[in-house]
């Protein structure tokens, strides 16, 4: 299956975007498919957590890794969805940054055939999350 990808150029310094995407405890503020987060263990740049997602209010186990000023990865290792969400930041110039989001996921078991429908929903949610992140940047700059 193909991955889901979305990008947005935002008129801000890379550090400003990093401050938002690296604060993964605030994911539900931007990623509305994530209902709640419970951190289990933090070690260095890695966080093990349980999340409740919108899809049937399901519980997922995730490993989040932060690569400072560049990338976050969220590996979904247990739950109805399995796979990875990767967010990368590319500096365009001093005051402009591109945020890239790539999902490589699939539904487990008998739900597998519905993956294409879920991917469309996740793409829409990703575009909305990028809008919320953009608006947060605008708020901070005014």
Characterization of the model:
The relative contact order is 0.23. 27% of the residues lie in helices and 47% in strands. By secondary structure, the protein is α+β, with helices and mostly antiparallel strands. It has a single domain, classed as 2-Layer Sandwich (Alpha-D-Glucose-1,6-Bisphosphate, Chain A, domain 4). β3 and β4 (59-67) form a beta hairpin. It has a seven-stranded antiparallel β-sheet, covered by helices on one side.
List the helices and strands and how they pair.
Blueprint: E1 4-10, H1 14-21, H2 27-30, E2 34-43, E3 46-53, E4 59-67, E5 71-78, E6 81-93, E7 96-107, H3 115-141
Antiparallel strand pairs: 1-7, 2-3, 3-4, 4-5, 5-6, 6-7
Quick recap:
This protein is α+β, with helices and mostly antiparallel strands.
Structural class based on helices, strands and sheet pairing: alpha+beta
CATH top level label: Alpha Beta
State Rg: 15 Å
Mean pLDDT score: 92
CATH architecture: 2-Layer Sandwich
Please give the number of β-strands: 7
Distance between the termini: 42 Å
Quick one: overall form? globular
How are strands sequenced across the largest beta sheet? 1-7-6-5-4-3-2
Q: Which homologous superfamily in CATH is the superfamily? A: START domain
Major sheet size, sense and barrel closure = 7 strands, antiparallel
Features:
seven-stranded antiparallel β-sheet, 27% helix, alpha+beta, globular, 47% strand, 142 residues, Alpha-D-Glucose-1,6-Bisphosphate, Chain A, domain 4, single chain, 3 helices
């Amino acid at each position: 299956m193909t991955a889901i990808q979305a990008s947005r150029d935002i008129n801000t310094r890379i550090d400003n975007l990093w401050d938002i995407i690296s604060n993964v405890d605030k994911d539900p503020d931007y990623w509305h498919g994530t209902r709640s987060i419970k951190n289990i263990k933090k070690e260095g740049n890695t966080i093990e957590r349980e999340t409740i997602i919108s899809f049937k209010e399901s519980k997922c186990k995730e490993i989040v890794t932060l690569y400072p000023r560049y990338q976050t990865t969220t590996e979904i290792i247990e739950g109805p969805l399995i796979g990875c969400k990767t967010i990368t930041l590319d500096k365009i110039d001093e005051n402009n940054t591109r945020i890239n989001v790539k999902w490589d996921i699939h539904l487990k078991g008998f739900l597998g055939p519905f993956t294409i429908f879920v991917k469309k929903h996740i793409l829409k949610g990703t575009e909305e999350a990028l809008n919320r992140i953009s608006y947060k940047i605008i708020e901070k700059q005014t």
